[in-house]
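Let us begin with a simple case.
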Amino acid sequence: VAILGALSTMGTNEVAGDYTAFTYSGHGGTSGGAYFICPEECYYIEDMITDDEMNVYFNAYQSTHNLAFFDSCNSGGLTMAVELCIMAAAANQYSWDGQPDIANGVWTYFFWEYGYRLGNAGSTVLETVFAYAKPLASDYVATNYPGYTMTPQIDDGCTGSFYL
């Protein structure tokens, strides 16, 4: 799978002190207590990529400054061996695509585009961007997808602020 190859390549190119970032926007799922991402080229459950498979690469990295960002359903169930993991939804929730006013996944839009790139969060500290984007994304889903919720999650093992 191309994603695992990219994680391997990233690991061979990074050194202690580097910052690494892995972002994924696509399908995600859960089955039998396992959580996974569903890349475009995967058609069967055994082809999905679990957090355990991704962690083989993250655990081998020399750098301790590692970010994983997921805009996928059930992403809150992923347990990642990274310093900062930002996820679009709780373990039992959908992640949503935007209406025509948003050309991305809702979480990708409010976090990366609106909060980070356009500077509306007022900071490039990712924890600050998360705090800014979380209610906006949740409110957007509640308004545009009545009856559903999306609660972005953060697993922050950073002892300070995480900048990119």
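The second case is a distinct protein. As before, the sequence precedes its structure tokens.
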Amino acid sequence: ARRRGADVTLVGSNLAVAAPEGVELVEAPTAQDLARETLARASDADAVLMAAAVADYRPATPLSDKRSKDDTSWQVELVPTTDVLRELSAHRADGQILVGFAAEHGDGGLDRARRKLEAKGLDLLIYNDIGREDVGFEAPENEVVLVSAGGERELPKAPKAEIAAAILDEVARLLGSNGRTAR
């Protein structure tokens, strides 16, 4: 998006690589930080792409230090984190495009992605079958399905840069259909 001329803000956590040159980086080490920082900036964006795999749950009572090991059992209560996509959808600016990603595996993954698109009020959802070893997180290539209210389009296995370009092409098309151009 930056190479296409967009002003890009990356809200990131535990990044394994440096942010691209010319991209504003906002560090958000926890799911709560990511929600706060993203929601604070989203209203100024033409498009928001939420590619992060944010933790769905957090400890109800976090410890401030290490718990020493002993022979007693330990139970941890988990509570849901903020659903950032749902919050973005509830507070979206007019004409703003919201894009989510669904890393799914097993039978029914694409059906779950379709339901997620609707439940979270997204314009576009990128379905990624993470049950395969030849594509996805640790592979140099990917194969995804673009899911929108207008239908679905499979992007065949290709280098990740080509997949990203096709996703941005679709975002630009959606922005154009809303009468906006990416800024």
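The chain is about 25% helix and 25% strand. Residues 143 and 157 are 4 Å apart (CA to CA).
Keep these points in mind for the review questions at the end of the chapter.
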